[in-house]
Amino acid sequence: MTTSSHSVPQASTPASNASSDVQAEEKAAAFNVLADAIASLSQAGASPVTGSAVRLEMGRRTYGGFDPKRVGYKRFRDFLDDAEARGYVEIDRDRPGDVSVAIPGVSAEADSTARMRSGLWKAFADWNPRTSRFYVLNEDRVVTLPTEPAPLEPTRYAELRTKISENPSAFVEIKPISRQQQLDWMRDFALLVTDPEVSRVLTEALKSEHPARYFVVILRSFPNLLNRWHNTLRERVYTEALKWRDSDSRLTSVQIDQVPLSAQPAVSQQPEEVVAARVSNRRVAEIPQKHTHDRDVVQFFTGQASKSVVYAGTTLRQRLHEAIERMPESELRKICIPVGYLFEE
Questions:
Q1: 61-64-65 Cα angle (round to 5)
Q2: Among residues 208, 125, 9, 107, which one has the least CA distance to residue 144?
Q3: How many angstroms separate the CA atoms of 229 and 217, rounded?
Q4: Given this model, what pLDDT does residue 179 score?
Q5: What is the rounded distance in angstroms from the CA atom of residue 141 to the CA atom of residue 100?
Q6: What's the whole-model pTM score?
Q7: DSSP states along 251-290
């Protein structure tokens, strides 16, 4: 009997399949950590976000557990290249030194509104009705003061009131964006969130006694959504500032941006479907909060929102029971159930 010199391919074993599945899951988790790391660094003001900074941030977020070799790559650069091919990131290879990375989907509008001058930003975004704010034409700056004079107020306020009354043409008043208008923006944003639970929780928070504060507390659970809200707010406030500038010919030369547009850093913004895919894996109430009060707020509004989905949950449970009754045993064996449920009384 003769034997072939060629080896016969062996069928993959269950153990090798299981190992492959584990690596695929870890790779998907690594891509998610990568996207979160970039979003966090961008939100913190890093510009540009370099590959080395991202690797350090990924290590911090995984308590040192992230290793490119663990998920099938020889180098971190190979991991980044594959992430780009899969659409998780964009890589800028033209800059000198380390490459920079960003989340795809940066809009031109977000770029142009990334950084308003701080004085103008506060003048428009702070809705305090007891404060007046003016742009000083010949000094190119914003000044604020209490709307109503008070006994023993600081001398600078009294002097400023005198200047405004004696030379009103040198000042242009800035009307802040009202609280109601900004709350409307928050409601619009909540309705556009694709994850239904998060959308409902945000909507419930906006019905509370402190809607703006609790809205932001909820968003802190989702840094990517919080980043999107900041971008949305910047765009809206920037638009209002442009309207103000266009309303008076004396303001034509006013610079809204903190730095020239060509020098502004890009603001990374994840596509909504990427954000929704990530947040749908975790319930709002399960996400840890840094402060006890914030955690209580999240749990309270999660409970309020849950009341509106009881019927939907009951219907889903009923449909699952009906489907299981119709399934053959071979299909039942494929269902993944946490083992604890099989031993509960």
A1: 90
A2: 125
A3: 12
A4: 93
A5: 35
A6: 0.50
A7: GTT---BSS-GGGPPP-----HHHHHHHHTTS-GGGS--S
